[in-house]
Amino acid sequence: MKKIFFLLFYYLAFTFSAFAQEAKDIVKKADEKAKGKTSIANITIQTIRPSWTREMKVKGWTKGNDLTLILVLAPAKEKGVVFLKRKKEVWNWIPSIERNIKMPPSMMNQSWMGTDFTNDDLVKEASILEDYNHSCLTEVVIDGRDCYKIQLLPKPESAVVWGKVVMAIDKKDFMMLHVEYYDEDGALINTMHCTDIKMLGGRLLPAKMEMVPANKKGNKTVLLYNSLVFDTPLEDSFFTTQNITKVK
């Protein structure tokens, strides 16, 4: 009996581990497709409120999962503001006061530039691959596309913004199409929906992302990719605090 119990436990543990690895591999494929080895993007961000709308234009560079730089191009009031991520460190250059500020982890869950995206959403301090445990929940259909529904729960040692993330990833083309963000108490905070699928940088990807807060009626932020280029060589020295004041 003990032998049968041990074999059953081993089988269940192996099966759970295999499913978890499969879920992580699906997320990895979607993440790598959206990022490439490097990426350079021109983006319009529309912050929509019941009584007003604001538009920003930004340029973003990424290299792997550890290096990100975002430059605000417009409006004039914020032009030249830069956000830099190097591994787990995030820096913010504010040209109006000529200060380079290191952002503490506690600021990662705060609004990025008044939008419905958090600082972590934009600079990705937390890694969706390394800071979470992954599991396949079921299959869903999003905008006519068959998707994997995958749950991400933070690892005990990880300092992350969200208590749970649930994402739908297209089964055929590995595009992240729908993401729900929950707090540590299990309450839904934000929902991101991705549409306008087209060729960007030679890859089929959503060109439009809408982030909608759960409890703020009439509020949303729309992120539009105007252009996206992958795998252009970028030196690590580009992503440094020394370069943060020079980038254009």
Number of helices: 2
As residue ranges, the low-confidence spans are 2-19
User: Helicity, in percent?
Assistant: 10-25%
Oligomer: single chain
Tell me the series of helices and strands, N- to C-terminal: HEEEEEEHEEEEEEE
Structural overview:
It is a single chain. Strands 6-5-4-3-2-1-13-12-11-10-9-8-7 form a 13-stranded antiparallel beta sheet, with helices on one face. It is globular and about 50 Å long. A hairpin with a 7-residue loop joins strand 3 and strand 4. Mean pLDDT is 89; it is low at 2-19. It contains two helices and 13 strands, in the order αββββββαβββββββ. The protein has helices at 2-35, 119-123; strands spanning 38-48, 53-63, 67-74, 82-86, 89-94, 99-103, 132-142, 145-154, 164-170, 176-182, 188-200, 203-213, 220-230. It has a single domain (2-238), classed as outer membrane lipoprotein receptor (LolB), chain A.
Q: Helices, strands, pairings?
A:
Blueprint: H1 2-35, E1 38-48, E2 53-63, E3 67-74, E4 82-86, E5 89-94, E6 99-103, H2 119-123, E7 132-142, E8 145-154, E9 164-170, E10 176-182, E11 188-200, E12 203-213, E13 220-230
Antiparallel strand pairs: 1-2, 1-13, 2-3, 3-4, 4-5, 5-6, 7-8, 8-9, 9-10, 10-11, 11-12, 12-13
In short:
With 248 residues, the chain is of the alpha+beta class. The chain has a single domain, classed as Clam (outer membrane lipoprotein receptor (LolB), chain A), CATH 2.50.20.
Keywords:
248 residues, outer membrane lipoprotein receptor (LolB), chain A, 2 helices, 16% helix
